[in-house]
Fold this protein.
Amino acid sequence: MNSQATGEIQFGRNVVITAIANLTRSTRNFALVPFFSTNLSMGHYGDWELLATVIAFATPWISMGLIGAMIRFLPGTSVEEIQEGFYSTFIFVLTMSVVTSVVICLTATLIEDTDILTPVRNNIASIASMLISTISMSTVLSYFRAFRQMFSHSTLSLCQHFGEATIVIFLLQSGNHLTSAIWALVGIRTIISLAGLIIIIKEIGIKWPSFQKLKSNLFFSIPLIPNSLFYRLYDSVDRFFLFFFWGSTAVGNYAAIYLAGSLLTTIVSPIHTVFLPTMASFWNKGQKNEITGYVTHIIRLSALITLPFFAIIVVLGEPILQFLTQQVLITETKSFIIISLSFAIFGFGIPLGDILVVAGKSKNLFFLN
């Protein structure tokens, strides 16, 4: 069996492993929507969704895009370079997240309290801790993604998603407030971060970095921050408008529709999770000619997966929304189909962005966005 065939088999195996973890995450997300709508309210789900949105929006800024740079530059390098790249990135983003969290807590005490900001002020400590634990976990998981160690990556992800869904449902069903659920997530993500760090230390050892390559990595990663910003703005700014004008319930209903529509990107996301580090490895080893074949296969496979699911959404859009929200949202079905179509188109464009990242054309990606 030639090396190309072996590489494609490994690629396919990693995609399957990642798909299992993503399926668990999607199941968790979908399970929480009817749970909130049945046991609490769509307003509570709206508050939960806004918290997740804020964390996702802040992460690229706090990490300065270095997590993505690590995935790009670590594959195919020596142990010494891996130690330097990972530990310098981890220490930098951890420090930035702690500093940012302290600033958030101090700022919250100075801002005048309003009805809109009261939920934030009441949960500011848990939100700040959530920020730190989430960024730490993302950095650790990205190490395994960079080296295509998808079994470790997916095992940790499975533990995270299953643990979060179980404990959140248990706490809220027992009558606890959202604050308790947020602290539970902080605990789980901290445990996942520590478990991943133990695996990494056993694999590459531990060494205090010199931070010599941090500057060059920042030159690469900083132009990628607007890329993440534009995606997050596209993905989440509408939730804040809905919250400001119509409140948490409107956010909850919209988020449920958006979650269902994003399924068309979620089902192909395992391919892209494995694709970027695979291409980075080929590029770093000078095997650029291998990339074309992978891109062709990925586009075909994405079409085979995405189009049938889109047809199902067109036919069964109304009952899907009714199941998620426990409400009849007939007028929202067309919006659901449009959102689903936009996600399908977006999914086909992801490999092109990955290629620009691998080629070091982060500035070009910035202008395209």
Notes: The mean pLDDT is 75. The two ends are 41 Å apart (CA to CA). The longest helix spans residues 3-39.
